[in-house]
Amino acid sequence: MELKKDSLFSAPIERLGDWTFDEKVADVFPDMIKRSVPGYSNIISMIGMLAKRFVQHDSNIYDLGCSLGAATLSIRRNIEQENCTIYAVDNSSAMVERCQKHLSGYKANTPVNVLCADINDIEMHNASMVVLNFTLQFLTPDDRQRILTKIYQALNPNGILVLSEKLSFNDDLINDLLFDMHYDFKRANGYSELEISQKRSMLENVMITDTLDIHKSRLNQAGFKHINQWFQCFNFGSIIAIK
């Protein structure tokens, strides 16, 4: 995949508006995510490792909020079981179009159905693995509990949910430190103060972060009993929940 540089916010934008995963974002998304999310490539690789352990034969796998299909591709490369199907779902038509092209470039035995849909609306069943990779944070707080409960009900015994999120922290000193370190990470990757500020302004109304305790509480309420954080870099983390 061509890595087109993200320069969407390098010049002042008069009316920023709210963030959307539109054609322009999809066009530079690989570079954007690499330079904006610390540990992203590690999480993608480890999702594949988890797929090797948890995907069951004759089952479904759901990548909810799949964007360009990085997690889907990692899962498909590592599936060793037979008769599995992956459903990659995103509500951005621009992302879905590119995801389909991306996945078509790699041959594999496991079929992938790429769907342009709201993840709240899709039916899930017979699932051995579900991935929410930086997706839940873009849902309304009310929808977050509903989708987690829906996932739990769709999972087979010993099925796994991988939930990756940008986190907030109750300790103000720690919260400020980790958020500032994230901005240092973006500066080190070539983003200017203007780019950081404009993107932050566009995201603040559409991406509401939660603490780790809130995530664990929701997962418990959904029915999960085996929950733990397995990755963190600054204010970005990933949780596994096993049915």
What this model shows, in words?
The chain is an alpha/beta fold and 243 residues long. It is 42% helix and 21% strand. The radius of gyration is 18 Å and the shape is globular.
Offer a quick outline of the entry.
With 243 residues, this protein is of the alpha/beta class. Helices cover 42% and strands 21% of the residues.
- State the helicity in percent bands: 40-55%
Structural class based on helices, strands and sheet pairing: alpha/beta
| General shape | globular
What pattern of helices and strands is seen along the backbone?
HHEHEHEEHEHHHEE
Calculate Rg over CA atoms: 18 Å
Supply the number of helical segments.
8
How much of the polypeptide forms β-strand, as a percent range?
Answer: 15-25%
> What distance lies between the first and last C-alpha atoms, to the nearest angstrom?
35 Å
Q: How confident is the prediction overall: mean pLDDT?
A: 95
Query: How would you sum up the major sheet?
Result: 7 strands, mixed
Spans of at least 5 consecutive residues with low confidence: none
Function: Catalyzes the conversion of S-adenosyl-L-methionine (SAM) to carboxy-S-adenosyl-L-methionine (Cx-SAM).
Catalytic activity: prephenate + S-adenosyl-L-methionine = carboxy-S-adenosyl-L-methionine + 3-phenylpyruvate + H2O
Protein name: Carboxy-S-adenosyl-L-methionine synthase
Domain Methyltransferase: 61-159
